[in-house]
Specification:
By secondary structure, this protein is α/β, with parallel strands linked by helices. It has two domains: 136 residues, Alpha-Beta Complex (Aspartate Aminotransferase, domain 1), CATH 3.90.1150; 236 residues, Aspartate Aminotransferase, domain 2 (3-Layer(aba) Sandwich), CATH 3.40.640. 39% of the residues lie in helices and 13% in strands. The strands form three sheets. The chain has a seven-stranded mixed β-sheet, sandwiched between helices. The longest helix is centred in the C-terminal third of the chain and has 22 residues. The structure holds pyridoxal-5'-phosphate. The site of pyridoxal-5'-phosphate (PLP) has 13 residues, from helix 5. The site of pyridoxal-5'-phosphate has 13 residues, from helix 5.
């Protein structure tokens, strides 16, 4: 008899990621141009690889302390002291297996049946499923391409109820590249702190910001760290997503609790990866400026190319390496990207991957060369001219 496992029903409800769906399909086709990849296309800088290999050679392959390698926690403390207004100490940090684990710990330690979490759509793929996995409800705030996916802070504040346990923010955002102005973050953070609601702020793209904008962080404001959990990593900044080095920041009291939880999930992070991360932080930062400069050029070009496309509503994103144009209202974005893949071999990510309200949109990633971007639009522009919606 073939009886399937009795999975937790919340697990059964997890969606298959639209990114994976497209990627698997594209793998069966030839001559596909990918504008769908969510990781840097640049090689990892040589000095970081060297430090990683050195750590392996020196036998730094044992478990670390459960909060992370002390040397990394100290390096992070210095780094953030130079970047934000909070006077952070080592006990405010917990090293995690990428920002992914930090988000998992933050969301599932707060969300519970009977509670609500406010999420701004379009939202990064982990947020809503994790809230639901923990048995809580998602309260969605909708933003659109017409508004450049900016959120009205009052809409978020008005959505807070006695059942709200957390608000998830992500700026610069995936999938939109939108950067919230400091005033937006500040208004939401202050109201949340006054009402006992925790802000979970995903800041993995905090160094990939254009147009001379400051890189706003919720740590810039004078708020009580008991009401904030920041999740971040080096995956994007230093092009090391596979090393799985991330962290969370909160009050030392919260970190103590989350550290206990962490020992029941991944136990500790990747030890040689943490040594490589220390080198990334302390070493030459030219690599970051070069990568960000390249993303800026690509952003400028993709914004220009999207203006030449019929039917699409676009905007100017100011960070990360994504843009999310929308199609005319009511259009099925999934069907659109499938046709685009089959007919012109350009692979994008369907909008509904990032929330129900984004069905008529699609995400393009410019973590790929300018040449490939040009090539994709040479196919897309004439093809779009022939479409009717
Ligand atoms: C917004 C956002 N948060 C978190 C992550 C996960 O990052 P990490 O590789 O550090 O787990 C990603 C990765 O794509 C992301 O786009």
């Amino acid at each position: 008899m073939n009886v399937s496992a009795r999975w937790n029903p919340n697990l059964e409800a997890l969606p298959t990621s639209g990114i994976r769906r497209m990627f698997n399909l594209a793998a069966t086709l030839e001559d596909v141009v990918h504008l769908s990849i969510g990781q840097p296309d640049f090689p990892t800088p040589a000095h970081i690889i060297k430090a990683h290999i050195k750590a392996l050679r020196e036998g730094k392959t044992r478990y670390t302390m459960d909060a992370g390698l002390p040397e990394l926690l100290t390096a992070l403390t210095h780094y953030y002291r130079g970047r934000c207004k909070q006077n952070l100490i080592e006990e405010n940090f917990l090293e995690t297996t990428g920002a992914g684990e930090a988000i998992f710990l933050a969301v599932t330690s707060l969300a519970a049946p009977g509670r609500e979490v406010i999420v701004i759509e379009p939202s990064f793929v982990l947020f809503q499923p994790l809230v639901e996995l923990a048995g809580a409800q998602v309260h969605r705030i909708i933003t659109t391409a017409e508004q450049g996916y900016q959120v009205d802070p009052n809409e978020v504040i008005d959505a807070i109820t006695p059942r709200t346990c957390a608000i998830i923010l992500n700026s610069p955002g995936n999938p939109t590249g939108t950067v919230y102005p400091p005033a937006t973050l500040q208004a939401i953070c202050h109201e949340a702190a006054n009402r006992g609601v925790t802000i979970i702020s995903d800041e993995v793209y905090d160094r990939i910001v254009f147009d001379e904008l400051p890189s706003p962080s919720v740590l810039d404001f004078d708020i009580d760290l008991d009401h904030v959990i920041v999740a971040s990593s080096f995956s994007k900044t230093y092009s090391i997503p596979g090393l799985r080095v991330g962290w969370l920041i909160s009050s030392s009291r919260n970190v103590k609790t989350l550290r206990r939880y962490h020992t029941y999930t991944t136990t500790v992070g990747n030890t040689p990866g943490q040594w490589a991360a220390i080198e990334a932080l302390k070493g030459d930062q030219t690599c970051v400026h070069e990568m960000v400069g390249e993303y800026r050029k690509r952003r400028n070009r993709i914004v220009e190319l999207l203006k030449a496309c019929c039917h699409l509503q676009s905007y100017q994103p100011q960070g990360a390496f994504y843009i999310m144009p929308s199609l005319p209202k009511g259009t099925d974005g999934s069907e659109f990207v499938l046709r685009m893949l089959h007919e012109i071999r350009v692979c994008a990510t369907p909008g509904d991957t990032f929330g129900k309200s984004c069905r008529n949109a699609f995400r393009l990633s410019y973590a790929t060369s300018l040449e490939r971007i040009e090539n994709a639009f040479e196919r897309m522009i004439p093809w779009l001219e022939k479409q009717s919606f």
